[in-house]
Design goal:
The protein is mainly β. Helices cover 0% and strands 59% of the residues.
């Protein structure tokens, strides 16, 4: 099984209370850093932008955009960084309530042949400036 430490770093967003906020319709830029435990042959390094619901009712999930940022061999113990950029949609906004929430995230998936794919998800907030205070 392939194992790797995966970190997602956001740029150009507004940070508050451990979350980063982006404006609807704006640009998101970031970096994925991967440090594998062993040599990993990576067919694809996918970075996906999407949202999902949490709470009561039927769950919903949508992948909005995806980028293939690398393919090749990842060396053990050596951090590798890859940039990504997405144009964010105008809706739905992030929403947090007792009954249902809309959660935006970046998901990193390392496509490894014949092994369980290492992956990582990092949440962020998609909301106009005034709405971030209520999230």
């Amino acid at each position: 099984m392939a194992k790797a430490d995966i970190l997602v770093g956001f740029r150009d967003g507004e940070e508050r209370d451990g979350l980063v906020r982006y404006e609807p319709g704006g640009q998101m830029r970031g970096t994925v850093q991967i440090t594998p435990d062993d040599e990993v042959r990576c067919k694809h390094l996918w970075v996906s932008l999407g949202w999902h619901t949490e709470g009561r009712g039927n769950p919903d999930r949508k992948k909005v955009a995806e980028a293939d940022v690398f393919h090749g061999t990842l060396s053990p113990g050596i951090p590798s960084s890859y940039d990504f950029q997405f144009t964010l949609p105008r809706e739905p906004w992030s929403y947090l309530s007792h009954y249902i929430s809309i959660v935006w995230d970046i998901t990193v998936n390392v496509d490894v042949p014949w092994a369980i794919n290492p992956h990582h998800t990092q949440q962020f907030v998609l909301a106009p400036r005034g709405e971030f205070a209520t999230y």
